[in-house]
């Protein structure tokens, strides 16, 4: 469950409301601003604020988040696949672990597995005489909330929805946020986050690692498109006749490339441009704005930039 260190993969906006002391409303507003996906403010409860000097404060909070579990068809075990930070932004567990490990993928997923619970009668089974496999697995996921694999700072509250192989569970996470006040503007901003008694995580470092991982992933996706275009050109003698990424992939997939690639690692559509003899593939990068320094670009005579 090291992934919980990363539940708040926060690309928080640095600005905030100016205030002599950090208030609950300001803290909630800053915590809810998670990059392009906003946490619902009602899901954030600021329990206490401890002032540390004139420009630092720690806010103790509980945040309600969603976890997506998937079941291994061979072993029957459930594992956490992704965490939802906002209304739409599901972040994969592997991506989170890779970021916190400095770019290296985790060695194993053993610590992510839901412990096997014996199929003994439970209160749920009393009321569900014809108990389905999902209902039994639902109980196992709920048991995760009290297992030794989960820090005391995390509590699985309920299984919101699911099927026999995929389930979304709602959990509350106790987190501490360290705020620092800008001396000039007087605005408070989140500097780092902490789960329970574990180490503080600097948000800038974490977000930087996440973006670097997604840049590399985007480069791989662009390379797949390049290979597909090359396969098409070898067979047909020209570039595909396409105006955008949808038309391009309609031509290439599945005859010339195995995977259907249309979006970059940030979930945004890849742009395709062709002059007839040359082409460009463009990802707008972390900021989502084309023409900035963080764009990931490949053309007919180069390979994707890392």
3D structure, described in words:
The chain has 306 residues and is an alpha+beta fold. It folds into two domains: 2-199, no CATH class; 221-299, Glycoprotein, Type 4 Pilin, CATH 3.30.700.10. The chain is 25% helix and 27% strand. It is built from six helices and eleven strands. The chain has helices spanning 24-32, 93-100, 123-127, 133-144, 203-236, 245-252, and strands at residues 44-52, 56-71, 78-84, 90-92, 154-162, 166-181, 188-195, 201-202, 271-274, 279-283, 296-299. Strand 6 and strand 7 form a beta hairpin. Helix 2 crosses helix 5.
Task: Spell out the blueprint of helices and strands.
Layout: H1 24-32, E1 44-52, E2 56-71, E3 78-84, E4 90-92, H2 93-100, H3 123-127, H4 133-144, E5 154-162, E6 166-181, E7 188-195, E8 201-202, H5 203-236, H6 245-252, E9 271-274, E10 279-283, E11 296-299
Helix pairs in contact: 2-5
């Amino acid at each position: 469950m090291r992934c919980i260190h990363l539940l708040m993969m926060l690309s928080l906006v640095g600005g905030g409301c100016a205030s002599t002391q950090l208030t609950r409303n300001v803290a909630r507003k800053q915590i809810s601003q998670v990059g392009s996906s906003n946490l619902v403010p009602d899901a954030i409860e600021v329990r206490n604020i401890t002032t540390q000097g004139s420009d630092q404060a720690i806010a103790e909070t509980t945040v309600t988040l969603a976890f997506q579990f998937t079941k291994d068809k061979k072993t029957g075990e459930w594992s956490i696949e992704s965490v939802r930070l906002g209304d739409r932004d599901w972040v994969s567990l592997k991506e989170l672990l890779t970021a916190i490990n400095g770019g290296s993928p985790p060695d194993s997923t053993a610590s992510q597995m839901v412990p096997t619970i014996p199929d003994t009668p439970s209160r749920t089974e009393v009321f569900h005489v014809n108990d389905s496999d999902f209902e039994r697995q639902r109980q196992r996921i709920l048991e995760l909330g009290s297992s030794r694999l989960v820090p005391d700072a995390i509590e699985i509250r309920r299984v919101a929805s699911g099927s026999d192989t995929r389930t979304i569970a709602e959990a509350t996470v106790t987190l501490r946020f360290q705020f620092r006040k800008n001396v000039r503007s007087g605005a408070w901003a989140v500097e780092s986050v902490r789960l329970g008694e574990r180490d503080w995580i600097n948000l800038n470092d974490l977000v930087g690692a996440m973006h670097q991982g997604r840049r590399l992933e985007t480069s791989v996706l662009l390379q797949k498109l390049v290979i597909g275009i090359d396969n098409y050109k070898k067979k047909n003698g020209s570039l595909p006749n396409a105006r955008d990424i949808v038309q391009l992939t309609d031509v290439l997939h599945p005859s010339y490339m195995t995977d259907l690639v249309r979006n970059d690692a940030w979930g945004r559509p890849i742009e395709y441009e062709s002059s007839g003899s040359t082409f460009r593939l463009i990802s707008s990068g972390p900021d989502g704005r084309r023409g900035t320094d963080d764009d990931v670009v490949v053309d007919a005579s180069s390979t994707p930039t890392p």
